[in-house]
Amino acid sequence: MTKHAEDNLFNRLSTSSLKRLRQFFQLWSLKTLTNLPDRLTNLWQQLIGSYWFIPTACVLVGILLAPILVTIDEHFDRDMVREITFAFTGDDDAARAIMTTIAGAVLGVAGTTFSITIAVLSMASSQFGPRLLRNFLTDTPNQFVLGAFIGTFSYSLLVLKAIHKYDVGFGVPQLSVTFAIIMAIICALLLVYFVQHMVHAIQASHVIQGASNEAIKNIHYWYSDRCDIEHQRNIEHHDIEQFHHWSATPIYPPYSGYLQQIYFESLITLSQDYGGVVEINSSLGHFVTDKNVIGYFYQRPADHPTNLQKTKTPHLALVPRSPDGLFWQRFAGCIRLEQRLTQSNDIAYSLGQMTEIAVRALSPGINDPKTAVNCVQSLTSCLSIMMRCQPPTPYHFYKPLDETDTPDTISHQPPAILAVVTRIPKISDFIDSSLGEIRRYAAADLMVLKALCQAMIDLNYARVNEAQQQTLIHEIKLIERAGADNLNYHQLADDLTAMCQQAEKFIMSENAQHHYFHYVSDFDAHIRQALQAQSKQGRA
Prior knowledge:
- The protein is α+β, with helices and mostly antiparallel strands.
- 60% of the residues lie in helices and 7% in strands.
- A five-stranded mixed β-sheet has the order 1-5-3-8-7, with helices on one face.
- The longest helix has 36 residues, at 92-127.
- The radius of gyration is 33 Å and the shape is flat.
C-alpha cells in the first residue's frame, strides 16, 4: 500500500470517526439526558435485581479488607492485642488451622444456602408462577447472606496466604485472624436468620403482601400531579382538540419487546425541537413489534401561531419539520423496551402478580381458594387507593420562559405548548384485568365469587364519580351471571344471586358510602323469622 493510499484511508477513518462522534454528542446532548435520574434509577434497579451484584460487592469488600487489616497488624503493638480477651494470640500453625477451617466451613454453608434458594425458587415457580421468581431473586436479605458467606471465604483465603509471609519477628496477623473469627460467628447467626427468612418468605400471605406493597408504590408514583396539570387551563389555541387534524406520521418502535418506560422529558424535548405533538397509544407493559404503530407524530401547520413567537428563549421560534433519521434515533432513546416483562413502575404488572397467584391457586393442581380470596382482598385495597387518587393527565406540556423573566413578568409569557399525549388506562381497565380475570377462573367457586362481590362493595366506599359506580354494577352483574351458569347446585347459585342483588341495591342507594353492608341469606332470614316467631309464642 502506497503512502498516498494510507493517507487517504487515514483521512476517511478520521472523518468517519469525527462524524459519528458528532452524531453521538448530538444524540446524547443535555436535552436528551433530561431524564438522567430516571435512567440511573433504572440502571440501579437492574443491578439490584440481579442476583450477583450484592454478593460480588461483598467479595470485593472481603478482598479489600484482608490487605488493610494485615497492614494494620504489621504496625500494631502485640502487647495491646494480648490484653484483649477475645483476641487471637496463637502461633502461625494455629492461625493457619483456624483460617483453613473458617474458609472451608463458610464455603460449604454458602453451597447449602444456594441449594436452599434453588429449592425455594422451584417451589415458588410451581405454586405462584415463574414471574414471581424475581421477587425472590431480588430479596436483599438473601443476597446479603450469600454475599457474607463468600465474602468471608475470600477474606479468609487472603489472610491465610499472608500468614506464610510472616517471620518470627512479626508473628502472625492476630487482628486479621480475630476479625475472621468474628465474621465466622456472624455467618453462623446469618445462617439461622436465612432459614427463618426463607420459611417466612415462601408463605402465600407474605408473597401477596409484597406484591401489594409494590403495586401501592407504583400507584403513588403515577397518581399525582406530576404532568404539569395546571397548564391545562391555558393551552395555545386548544391544541388538545385540534392536533388530530394535523399531518400525522406513524411511529414505530425500534425493535420488538415490552414497553417498560417512557422518558417524558426527553420526549417533550424531541417534540419541541421538531415542532409537533407526539402521541403514544401503547400503555406500559404492552408487547409491540417493530412493525406495530405505537403512536403518531403530529406536525404543526406552517401558519400555527406557536411557530411565529419570537422571544429571547432558545428554540421557542419553532420551525416544524418532518421526522428524519435523527428523530428516530432520539425517539429510540425516549422509550425503554425489554425482551421480557420485568418489574418497573407499571401498575398493571404489579396487579398482575397478585392476579397470577390467585389464578394458580384456583387451578385443580393446587386448589387453594383461600389464597385466591386473599389476593382479591389485596387487589381491592390497591384499587380503592386508585379510585380515591387523581389519575395522571395524558397531556404533557412545555412552557417556554425567557431567561430574563422575573416573577412579575412570568404571567405575561406565552401559554404552555402541548408536546406529548399518552394513553392512561381507566380504573375499569384495571378492575377487568385483575378482579375480572379472577372471576373468569373462579366461575365455579362460591367462596371466591362471594369475595369478588364483597370487593365491589368495598370499592364502592372509595368511588368518587358515577362512572366508577357503573363499573362496579357491571362487574356485579357479571359475577352473578358467572355463578348462575357454572355453580353445580342451584342453592349455591341462589345464594350468590341474592348477595349480588343486595350488593347492587346497596351500591345504587343514596349515601351508601356512610352505611354498613351486611348480607343476610334467605336461609338465615328464614331461621331468624322462625326463632322470632317461636320467641313470641313463648312469651304469649
